[in-house]
Design goal:
mainly alpha, 2 domains, Helicase, Ruva Protein, domain 3
Length: 157
Amino acid sequence: MRLLFLALVAIMATVVMVPAPVFAVEPDEVLQDPALEARARELSEELRCLVCRNESIDESNADLARDLRVLLRERLVAGDSNSEAIGFIVDRYGEYVLLKPTVRGANLLLWAAGPLMLLAALAIGVFYVRGRARKPKASEQGLSAEEQQRLREILED
């Protein structure tokens, strides 16, 4: 019985300690229409908090994140589609506000930079190894005439 009790306590402690998703949306921000609120939550998970950087505005308690949540909900209530609402915020704050940046324009260079650097490093490595393989080893080159003369002088002494 004691063992069963300890197992139950361990399970309950594990359940309590598992982090649940925490949302910073305040009650006064929640829209009355459940469909609009669901859209707002979905879209706010795609937007970065400009203060916290790696948190969505849905998770952040920063004042700017709250302002972005309110702005997003205002745009949805005004009748904007998802892409129009996101586009409005991106036009106002720049693409940095997106947690998943687009793959076009200047971002294309950033997306391609990693693979291009890897290919450049591999090419440099291949050329270096091939160059080392072609170069004769120091032991195979032999001694120059001056070095042979100096060696004879040392050996005669």
